[in-house]
Amino acid sequence: MVGKTDNDDVLERWISQARKGYFEMLLLARVSAGRAYGYQIVASLKHAPGFENLAEGTVYPVLSRMKKDGLVTAEWVAEETGAPRKYYTITDRGAAALARMRAVWTRMGEVLDAQGDTA
Amino acid sequence: MTTDLVLVTEAARTLWRRFLKRLDWSNRTLGPDERAEARAEAAAHMREAMGETTAETEAGQLADAIAGFGDLPAPPPAWRQPVAHLVHYLAIMVIGATGLMVLVFFHMAVMEIFNPDGVGLWLYPDEVGLTLSYEVQPGAREALGAAFIPVMLLVNAVLIAAIYGLWRLALSPRGPVSRWMRP
């Protein structure tokens, strides 16, 4: 018999894996909504269900990787207060990738629903 | 345009220095430019986050901002990598020497079959001096007789187990010493 704790562990592991891909898509979606700087992206992600306890530092390596992959561009902008902010902007490639991600995500949902219908 | 985090109090500066050490350690696989960029971005993040905390002191605000940023692994103590290298190469020497002993003991166990009078463990009258020899030792008596073969095989089994343990500990790529050797 599988105990409750074991089930929790399995679910936690699954959620962690599922969130990784979802997180990237969510980040890209946020940047596609308009040019944004790191803390702004973090703040809006923390309002997303399931990401309330997001460790803020986890956002930056993903943004950096997206920049390397050409999905976003980044530029430092000196604000009037003197404190610079690094703004991220989605590229055409990033927008195309996001569209593909959304399609895959929707398709996966449909496949899952179809499984539920046949059960 | 400065990308540094400007802090007034020494307590906050100390906190920030510790944080940067951890950040650099987390980004140790990146190049110097990328590490500098990550530092600048972390500074920009902290500036924003510090403005939103309710802490009254600068150090308190920074501590809250760092807590929100998430746990970063602490770099290992500076002595660990050189000690790991030392243990690694020492283990190679010990394993090599022990391996030679295993071969010699095995050879002696085999030779005991062909030369039971000469090969053996010889004990001198003072019962302190011991010698392993292929030949009769004048003034000494053989200690084990026919039991020499199983005893040598048992000693070899123990030595091989010790070699394996040392290999797992100090030479295996997944062992702790190999992990500690990595930057």
Tell me what the CATH architecture of chain A is. Orthogonal Bundle
Number of domain units of chain A: 1
Strand fraction of chain A equals: 5-15%
Largest sheet of chain B: 3 strands, antiparallel
Radius of gyration of chain B: 31 Å
**Strands side by side in the biggest sheet of chain A:** 1-3-2
CATH topological fold name of chain A: Arc Repressor Mutant, subunit A
Summarize the largest interface: chains and residue counts.
A-B, 17 and 19 residues
SSE order of chain A, as H and E? HEHHEEH
H and E string of chain B: HHHHEEEHH
Overall average residue pLDDT of chain B: 92
Largest sheet of chain A: 3 strands, antiparallel
Strand content of chain B: 5-15%
Contiguous runs where pLDDT drops below 50 for at least 5 residues of chain B: none
Number of helices of chain B: 6
Oligomer, anyone? heterodimer
- The count of DSSP E runs of length 2 or more, i.e. the number of strands of chain B, is 3
Kindly, what is the distance between the CA atoms of the first and last residues of chain B, rounded to a whole number of angstroms?
A: 33 Å
Tell me, rounded to a whole number, the average pLDDT of chain A: 89
**Shape estimate of chain B:** rod-shaped
